[in-house]
Amino acid sequence: MLRIVIFNNSHGWHSKQLEAALAPQGVAIIRSNLAQCRIDLDSPSGLHIPGLGGDLPDAAIVRGIAAGSFEQITLRLDVLHTLAEFGIPVLNTASAIERTVDKARTSLLLRHRRVPTPRAWACEDLAQARHLSAQAQREKRELVLKPLFGCQGQGIIRIGKPADLEACEPTGGLYYLQEFIRPAQPNIWQDWRVFVIGHRPIAAMVRRGQGWITNVARGAQYFPAPLEREIGALACQATQAVAVDYGGVDIIQTPAQGFQVLEVNSIPSWKALQQTTEVNIAGALAKNLLERLHSSYFAHSGSSQKI
Question: Signal sequence span per UniProt (predicted)?
């Protein structure tokens, strides 16, 4: 029987959804936590994954990585890196997560692949950050200061003038500044979350906040949204730019420059989105993972790897 690991630091609704989608396929599901995994060179594989011992899974899906020290996060990502290096399908891989959890790197990759995205800067020096804010003020623009590794709209601050930076304590001593995008329609603060699997858009919703922060976790309302061609195509360009197998792409409409990608989430929640669509998102993820697993099996059928 195929064994698929779901990695999460707190198994809940999402794990249950994935289990419900995978169980009818004759798959054994193992819930695990990367914080409890270890490198163990006495084991046959060199890894110890709770629920598997020294064996390796046939595939894995990552639903959460707990906060921790730099060293702890490195070890957890080492486990994911190793699984991928052994040819085991992982959604998403450690490399994909590293590319997207770092907002500055995401901005760089989107810019490099010519995916429309707000202007952004990252620096360690307050004087440089003040210079960037002063430049934006001269251009009659504002900036948003974001934690480099933040999520769910936590810790983001709107910067209208250089003096606003004085009251900020930059997370990790680093200033990641993104151009503030004014709403395309006055006083309607909204953006789109597009869920993409295998570089194909499968569902979308509109998130609308009472203020400029539109994260559902911060109280924004959410509504069904049609998968319009332009938004869907842009979301796929974004996932290709950062090379994620699945992701939640946040897109905003600008007053004059069309749609732009704010960020790409490589471990996206879909609980709110599922309430706006008839598409079985967990089922689509399970299907994609099983297709990858079977492709991997045929690709390695001549090797010693047993699946």
Answer: none
